[in-house]
Design a protein that fits this description.
By secondary structure, this protein is mainly β. It contains one helix and 24 strands. The protein folds into two domains: 159 residues, Immunoglobulin-like (Sandwich), CATH 2.60.40.10; 168 residues. It has a six-stranded mixed β-sheet, covered by helices on one side. The relative contact order is 0.15.
Length: 346
C-alpha cells in the first residue's frame, strides 16, 4: 500500500522532479517533454520492447532491464506492478494493483544498474492466479536514495499476451489455359454497429503475415522448421490479407492433388500463430473448354509447429470449430466482443 500511495503522489510530478533529485529524461516508453535547462537524466531500456503510437509494448515473460544514471547512485530498486486493465483496441478499464520489487545490479561506477523483470498477464498471489487481460498495463518504477521521494522514473508499459488473428477464406479458379490458382483472403465480420475486419492484432498491432504453399507435407517428418521447400510464397505487413498463388495443377474429383498451406501471423512484440491446411485441388474442362476448379480443406490445425518427436507426425490439434461456415475457411476471428468498441487511451 505504501508503494501505491507513492505512485499516486508521483503522477502529478511526472514532468519534473524536486531540487536534489536526479533529473530524468524519457526512458523507453516515457514519451517526450524534457524541460529547458535540464541535464541528461535517468534512462530505462527494456529488452525487446517496441513503441507503437507513443506507447511502449512488451511481450509476456522476462525482459532484461537496464537503468542508466548521470552520476553514481546507491540502493536502486525497480518495481513492476501487476498487469491490469484492458488496453486493446476494443476497450480500456485500468485499475490499480500491487508491485513486485526487482533486484538490480550495478556496474563498477554504479551508474548503470541491470536486472531482469517479468511482465505477466496472469499474476499469482496467495489467493491464486487471476487473468486480467491479454492486453494489460504495468507500471515500471525506479527508486534510488538520491532522488527526492525515492522515485527517479515512473512510466507505463503495455503487456501484449495475445496472438494475432485472421479468418481467411480459401478459394480457387481456373487459369487462362489450364491449371488452377488459389486465393487466400481475410474476411470481415458483421455486427449491429459495423463491419469488423477479421485480421489484425488488438494490442501491439500486426507486424506481418506470410503464406507458404507446399506440394508435399512440410510436417510429414517432424522438425523445427518445415522439411519441404515451398513452391509459392507471399507476405505482407498489414491487413487485409490478399494473396493469389501461381497456377497449380489439379487432379480429378476422385483423386485430387494435395497441397499444404501454412499461414503465419506475428505481432510487433513477437507473438506468433500459424494455421495449417491440407488442400485437395481438382480441375476439369467444362463443355465450353473453360477450366473449372474445386477445392476442399481436408485437414486443419493451428498453433504450429506440430511436433511429437518422431517421424510421421500428424496434425494432432485439428479443430472443427475453427473452420467457419464452410470447409474453405481457416483461422479465427477474435474481435467484436463488445459492440461499438471504445478506443483505448493510456
Amino acid at each position: 500500500m505504501k508503494k501505491l500511495l507513492l505512485i499516486l503522489a508521483v503522477v502529478a510530478l511526472a514532468s519534473f522532479l524536486a531540487v536534489g533529485c536526479i533529473p530524468t529524461t524519457p526512458g523507453e516508453g516515457e514519451g517526450e517533454g524534457e524541460g529547458e535547462g535540464e541535464v541528461e537524466g535517468v534512462t530505462v531500456e527494456i529488452e525487446d520492447s517496441v513503441e507503437v503510437g507513443g506507447k511502449t509494448y512488451v511481450g509476456e515473460g522476462s525482459h532484461n532491464v537496464s537503468v542508466t544514471f548521470p552520476a553514481p547512485v546507491t540502493n536502486v530498486i525497480l518495481y513492476v506492478t501487476d498487469c491490469v486493465g484492458d488496453y486493446s483496441s476494443k476497450n480500456t478499464t485500468p485499475t490499480s494493483s500491487g508491485e513486485t520489487p526487482i533486484v538490480l545490479w550495478p556496474n563498477d561506477d554504479k551508474t548503470v544498474w541491470s536486472g531482469s523483470a517479468s511482465f505477466v498477464c496472469e499474476p499469482c498471489i496467495e489467493s491464486g492466479c487471476e487473468e486480467y487481460s491479454n492486453c494489460c498495463a504495468s507500471y515500471v518504477l525506479v527508486e534510488a536514495g538520491e532522488c527526492e521521494g525515492d522515485v527517479c522514473v515512473y512510466f507505463p508499459v503495455i503487456v501484449d499476451c495475445e496472438v494475432p488473428y485472421a479468418e481467411i477464406e480459401i478459394t480457387t479458379k481456373g487459369c487462362t489455359c489450364e491449371d488452377c490458382e488459389i486465393t487466400f483472403k481475410s474476411q470481415t465480420q458483421e455486427s449491429d454497429c459495423a463491419e469488423t475486419e477479421c485480421c489484425g492484432d488488438d494490442c501491439s498491432e500486426l507486424a506481418g503475415w506470410s503464406i507458404a504453399i507446399y506440394d508435399g507435407d512440410p510436417f510429414d517428418v517432424c522438425c523445427e522448421t518445415p522439411c519441404e521447400e515451398p513452391i509459392f510464397t507471399c507476405s505482407g505487413t498489414e491487413c487485409p490479407i490478399d494473396c493469389t498463388s501461381t497456377c497449380l495443377k489439379g487432379g480429378t474429383t476422385e483423386a485430387p492433388i494435395y497441397y499444404y498451406a501454412v499461414v503465419n501471423l506475428v505481432d510487433k512484440v513477437g507473438n506468433e500463430v500459424e494455421y495449417y491446411a491440407k488442400l485437395g485441388l481438382s480441375s476439369w474442362l467444362d463443355d465450353e473448354g473453360e477450366v473449372v476448379c474445386a477445392l476442399a480443406v481436408t485437414e486443419y490445425c493451428a498453433d504450429l509447429p506440430i511436433t511429437d518427436g518422431k517421424p510421421g507426425c500428424t496434425c494432432t490439434s485439428f479443430e472443427d470449430s475453427a473452420i467457419v461456415d464452410t470447409d474453405e475457411y481457416i483461422g479465427f476471428c477474435y474481435p467484436d466482443d463488445n459492440c461499438c468498441p471504445v478506443p483505448a487511451v493510456l
